[in-house]
């Protein structure tokens, strides 16, 4: 099952419309992607990509910074188009790719420090909800 929350448009797997503020759980989605499955894949791929364990936490952090800069550049181009300003353009698919790269890099950096991102995400999200007196928690 894939969970789509606060998205608009059709589900890419089942074609059903999704509405902002509603939850769509798709039974036809091919994979239930989670932070845990990302971590397992990163561990396995790192064995091939970094067999001698030369990549350091500093490398991982600068890689994350680089990918974040690339995402911001795409957002700049999307805003340029929205505002009608001359210059190069980008697509939402390009932004999706850059944001995916960021998530991968975040997990790789967390992996270097043995951080459980699922628990960290839950703790941080819930602490913010508590601090702001919001009812939504994960």
Quick recap of the structure?
The chain is mostly helical and 138 residues long. The protein has 2 domains: 1-32, no CATH class; 33-117, Helix Hairpins, CATH 1.10.287. Helix content is 57%, strand content 9%.
Give structural notes:
The protein is mainly α and 138 residues long. It has two domains: 1-32, no CATH class; 33-117, Helix Hairpins (Orthogonal Bundle), CATH 1.10.287. The protein is 57% helix and 9% strand. The protein has helices at 35-49, 57-83, 92-112, 117-131, and strands at residues 2-5, 9-10, 17-18, 23-26. The strands form two sheets. Strands 1-4 form a two-stranded antiparallel ribbon. Helix 2 runs antiparallel to helix 3.
Task: List its traits.
138 residues; disordered N terminus; 4 helices; two-stranded antiparallel sheet; 2 domains; 4 strands; mainly alpha; single chain; Helix Hairpins
What characterizes the major β-sheet? 2 strands, antiparallel
Count the domains: 2
CATH architecture of the largest domain: Orthogonal Bundle
Report helical residue fraction: 55-70%
Q: Beta-sheet strand percentage?
A: 5-15%
Q: Count the helices. How many?
A: 4
* SSE-based structural type: mainly alpha
Summarize the helix and strand pattern as letters: EEEEHHHH
Strand order of the largest sheet: 1-4
Radius of gyration: 18 Å
CATH topology of the largest domain: Helix Hairpins
Calculate the mean pLDDT score and round it: 88
How many extended strands? 4
- Give the CATH class of the largest domain: Mainly Alpha
User: Unreliable stretches, pLDDT < 50, 5 or more residues?
Assistant: 1-7
Distance between the termini: 17 Å
The coarse silhouette is globular
């Amino acid at each position: 099952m894939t969970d789509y929350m606060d998205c608009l448009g059709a589900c890419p797997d089942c074609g059903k419309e999704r509405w902002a503020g509603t939850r769509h759980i798709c039974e036809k989605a091919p994979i239930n992607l989670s932070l845990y499955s990302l971590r397992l894949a990163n561990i396995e791929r790192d064995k091939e990509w970094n067999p001698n364990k030369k990549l350091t936490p500093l490398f991982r952090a600068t890689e994350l910074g680089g990918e974040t800069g690339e995402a911001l550049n795409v957002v700049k181009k999307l805003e340029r188009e929205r505002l009608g300003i001359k210059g190069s353009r980008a697509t939402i698919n390009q932004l999706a790719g850059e944001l995916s790269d960021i998530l991968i890099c975040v997990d790789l950096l967390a992996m270097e420090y043995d951080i459980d991102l699922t628990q960290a995400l839950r703790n941080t999200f819930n602490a913010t909800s508590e601090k702001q007196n919001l009812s939504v928690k994960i």
